[in-house]
Each structure stands twice: as structure tokens, then as C-alpha cells.
Design brief:
Structural class: alpha+beta
Largest sheet: 7 strands, mixed
Shape: globular
Order of helices and strands: EHEHEEHEEEHEHHHEHHHHHHH
């Protein structure tokens, strides 16, 4: 529904007919960016995307997701009406690889946020919520002011890896507010089993999200604003992931990796009364018991 746009297709050496299809549109507003060297790390290709386009705003949208026809219009309106907000994303409908709806991203109610059209976060308030609910923001729904992308230059793959999106949110929110629209305006495609992918990809290492969390919770200006409970929430996230990784390793009959993750989880020094403060946490206690019984 928003017409004042340029579409830049940043083609990462595709092997389908992407280039031919883009060239078939006879329009100066549809621009093809061709690269002959394949960038096998998607996040690094996103750094290319950050610097194309001449407009007031830029959005990085992914090829395998489905976008609501009003998404650009709504995001532009939010940025126009909220000068303190430098970037905005939306909630999502979650779909499987075949396009079937399987759920939605967390609602504002689930996140403990007011029932408003948009939530606005500083770096500290966003980090506190991530420590509570993991990375709940949807990367391929992001629109930002062009000068923000110019200032940030690129994603920080070396440190943030596959959690470069979370690092990007926090870098933006450190300078101004970042917003989330309460309405789902994107159908976000998920892998069949993202947990198994995480285990396979990291192969015995912590997920990159902990590199990002470690960086930000230990940054002096941020650390001073965090509470004891926030640091406990960090341990709780890590504890959960270590148990899940131990379980995945056990399923793959990798007993050494399973034992390593399990023992690291046991070394986390927090009380059971905190770990199981919420009813949903009992599934991790059950997982722990199952791992012990099958070792």
C-alpha cells in the first residue's frame, strides 16, 4: 500500500532465476545488485543490504518470508510520528517451510508489555526483556532510518555470529529508541527443528547469543542498570539451553558432548527455588531427570 519505494534485490549468487526475474521488470525503482563471490554467511550479506538505497528509511526483508501489504506503510508511519525511535520491527505469524501457520511470535501480553500499538525500548529495557524471554524480535521485519545503518556500518559477525540481529537491536537502542509494532505484519518462516539446528551448528560451543549477552551485560553503562534478578535470568537461560543441548547430544548418541553440557548446567550456582519459580520451568526439571536416567 506504500508506493514511494525503491526495491533493491541483493542477489547472493543465487542459482535459480532471481536475476532474470528482476531484470524482467522495466523500472528504475527495482535495482539488482549482483555479486560473483558467494557470501556463505547470511549475516554478512545483510551488511551489504544496509548500504543500498537512497531513501529516508531502509528495510532489510528476506526472500523466504511473506509480508503483509501494509507493512511498509505502517512502519514508515511509526518512524514519521515517533522521532525518538530510530528503527522498528513487527510481530510475526510463524509459518513452517511449506507455508502453514504454526503459531505467532510472543504477544505484548506474554511479554508483560502494555496493550499499546507500539512498544519502545532503550538498550537496557530491551536487554532485560531478552534475558526474560530470549530474542523475541523478528529480524526480517526491521526498518530503520538510513543514517542509522550508515553509522553502524555492518553487523558484528566476528563477535555476534548468528545472533548479529540481537546485537544490532541493542546497538540501535543504545543511541535512540527501537520499536516493535504490536500487530503481526510478516509471516516468518521457521526451520523444521530450530533446536536441532542450533545443536548441530554450534557443535559443543555455546550459541552466539551468549557472546552477545556477555558483551552487553558486562558493558559498564548497561551493567550499572541491571539487577541481581537480571543476572539470574541470564543463568536461567543458559541453564535451559545447556540441558536442551545435553538432550540433543544424547539423542545423537554423543555421550561425551551430552555429559559436558550436563555437567556445565550443574555448575550454575543458583537455587532450585529460583529455577522453578514458574510452572513452565518444570519441563526442564523433567528433562534433567530423563537425561540422568538414560546416561
Amino acid at each position: 500500500t506504500y508506493q514511494n519505494i525503491e526495491i533493491h534485490v541483493v542477489d547472493n549468487v543465487s542459482t535459480d532465476r532471481t536475476r532474470d526475474v528482476v531484470r524482467s521488470f522495466q523500472s528504475d525503482l527495482i535495482v539488482l545488485h549482483e555479486y560473483e563471490e558467494y557470501e556463505h554467511i547470511a549475516e554478512k550479506n545483510h551488511s551489504r543490504c544496509m548500504h543500498v538505497g537512497k531513501g529516508k528509511y531502509r528495510a532489510i526483508y528476506h526472500a523466504d518470508d511473506v509480508y503483509h501489504k501494509t507493512m511498509v506503510e505502517v512502519a514508515v508511519k511509526v518512524l514519521e510520528e515517533n522521532p525518538e525511535v530510530d528503527a522498528v520491527s513487527t510481530r510475526a505469524i510463524l509459518i513452517n517451510p511449506k507455508g502453514k501457520q504454526i503459531g505467532t511470535s510472543k504477544t505484548f501480553q506474554q511479554l508483560g508489555l502494555p496493550d499499546e500499538a507500539i512498544a519502545k525500548f532503550s538498550a537496557v529495557s530491551l536487554l532485560k526483556l531478552v534475558l526474560r524471554h530470549y530474542n523475541f524480535m523478528i529480524y526480517p521485519s526491521l526498518m530503520a532510518r538510513s543514517e542509522v545503518f550508515d553509522r553502524l556500518q555492518s553487523v558484528r559477525w566476528g563477535m555476534a555470529g548468528t545472533s548479529s540481529d540481537l546485537d544490532l537491536w541493542l546497538r540501535i537502542a543504545e543511541q535512540a529508541k527501537i520499536g516493535v509494532i504490536s500487530v503481526p505484519l510478516i509471516s516468518y518462516r521457521l526451520r523444521n527443528n530450530p533446536g536441532e539446528y542450533m545443536f548441530t551448528y554450534f557443535n559443543g560451543r555455546h550459541p552466539y547469543i551468549y557472546n552477545v549477552l556477555d558483551y552487553w551485560i558486562n558493558k559498564d553503562s548497561i551493567k550499572a542498570e541491571l539487577s541481581t534478578r537480571d543476572f539470574q535470568q541470564y543463568e536461567k537461560l543458559l541453564y535451559r539451553d545447556l540441558l536442551k543441548f545435553s538432550g540433543y547430544a544424547l539423542l545423537k548418541r554423543d555421550l561425551k558432548a551430552s555429559a559436558g553440557f550436563f555437567e556445565e548446567a550443574n555448575q550454575i550456582n543458583s537455587s532450585l527455588s529460583f529455577w522453578f519459580f514458574e510452572s513452565k520451568d518444570y519441563k526442564y526439571l523433567l528433562l534433567k531427570v530423563l537425561i540422568i536416567l538414560t546416561r
